[in-house]
Please model this.
Amino acid sequence: MEKKKIVSKKEIVTKDVTICDSTAQMLEKAKRDGVETAFDRAANMKACPIGANSACCKHCSMGPCRLNANAPYDKVGVCGATIDTIMARNFARMVAAGGSAHTDHGMSMLDLFREVVNGKILDYEIKDVQKLESVAQEIGIETEGRSVKEIATDLYHELERTYIQVEGEIPFAKRVPAKTLETWRKLGIVPRGAMREIMELMHRTHMGVDQHYENITKQCSRTALADGWGGSMVATEIADILFGTPTPVAVDVDMGVLKEDQVNVIVHGHEPNLFESMLVSVTDPMIVQKAKDAGAKGINLVGMCCSGAEMMVRHGIPHAGNFMSTETVLVTGAVDAMCVDVQCIKQGLVAVADCYKTPLFTTNPRCHIEGAEHIEFHEHTPRDCTDAMVIKAIHRFKNRTCEIEIPKNTHAGVHGFSHEYINYMLGGTFRGSYTPLNDNIINGRIRGVAGVVGCTNPRVKQDWVHVELVKELIKNDVLVLQTGCSQIALAKAGLCTPEAAHLAGSGLKEVCETVGMPPVLGIGSCVDNSRILIAASEMVKTGGLGESIADLPVAGAAPEWMSEKAICIGQYFVASGVYTVFGVTFPIVEETKFHRHLFKGLEEQGLGKWGFTPDPYEMARMMIAHIDAKRKALGIDKARERVLMDMTDRQQLSA
Ligand code: NFS
Ligand code: SF4
Model:
């Protein structure tokens, strides 16, 4: 293996940067091998404090203008823009970029769906007809006595509006609880098509256009909602229709899923079409034979990041790790190919892959990386790309030269709790229902529901904030729903098993044991956060917990966020009515008008609000306090006291 010179000066202490044993082990090996990762770079790259506050503007060449937290509040840019305008514009552009990523992903799914329905793509098919029909019915498409093709054609045209519609409300606005929708209408933030909203947001944040932070925030919400209830939701629903709706499945997570005697192929990224085709390639008997001829026992397909999470919940494909483990997994030397598509792909992968002679393939026309080999993926002929990558992986296996060290850690867990399954699991009859969930919230066994989601980030100890936060929440009877890299963090900590119920408070524990479910329900990828929105809507519609999403005893968190997508997700949860707390850092100066607007003003308008703390225990406290306040407003706070008293009484009796 070729040594690369480390340019970084400050050495990292592995136990300080991650609680993932495998990642730590590989960071030690990386040190020995002279390989640098984002952990090293984070230690040696001081974050710019002005940028961290979004207090700089480079929207025109009269600047760039730098204001900062310590400058007088009335200091303005050359054009006169205030710090509130500058922060709001920067924040808005994060929402626009993040929303674009999800909606473009959703649009790719819709393109694929159209070509499948037209019969132009034959390698994919509609796998879940029941889901097709239920989604169609929900948005007013007649299904009775009609063929799959007719329904699918109508559904395609209807969902296309999510992106290109110039006027009117997006189709999934029909899923929004009436009172929440009424608030959006009053504020003028019901999304039209995503393309229009993103375009308008970019226009309004241009130099010399929208210069009122409140008005910018409105378009921010509208754009974010076009993602949550639009782009992301379409991505999820179409993926379910084409590839199947997830149901609970036992899966192994962590780097121990790599196998020394097999050809290891990792798919990392976001869009499931590539991964689905790869699944077919690695099970093709002719290709498997080629692997055996090369001396391998077989081909081992493994996922990472969000596409990994999607394949894990849908097909039980093992998952090797989250965002901050994508470089370190290559340090094992055991990866024979890493195949990526879009989003969260660190450019740093190229250098690490190069050190271990692991081929790194880009596949999407939107994402080339200098130094990586590009084999373009075409949905009309998907196998051309995925077969070629596997063949190259087999070649690499045969010619492995570097030392291989695979951390021996795997964690079995149950994942794949789609909102449909939660319905069924708790309903327990032919007809699923959210009534038992609502009942358990009303009677206080479950205090509330939290969505804990999002990235990992080398600015904080990997996985630690996620794990500590979730442990606190379940200990306090808060049921946790999870997606993305956060879900992988908790899976590695062993919390995605029914046995983890013993870590839950007495009420939640009782529910988990009765149903046989973990206290932490893994749902899938980041676009699958839309499933959490749907679950929240169902809770409102089921009754007893208020009239809008803002009334529910729920809260959200992205404790180790890093991407613009995360900001967009946060904003769509907030605009939907959810208190959403972020960790790491928050890109806004405190005690400014814009900060007050996000953290308080939006709630006064009937939406949710933002919160921030890097500390997991404080985060849990803030979320639980919010849940308790909502319980009180609903008049169900007393019920919980009774349940807890019952519990103590019972314990006293049995003592
Ligand atoms: Ni979502 Fe962050 Fe990326 Fe997925 Fe992971 S880093 S915002 S969780 S892989 S998108
Ligand atoms: Fe400076 Fe205004 Fe130009 Fe921004 S838009 S760089 S604040 S002059």
About this structure: The chain has three domains: 83-243, 255-398, 413-638. The pocket of FE(4)-NI(1)-S(5) cluster (ligand 1) is lined by residues 305-306, 322-323, 343-344, 454-455, 484-485, 526, 563, 565-566 (CB under 6 Å). The chain has a mean pLDDT of 94.
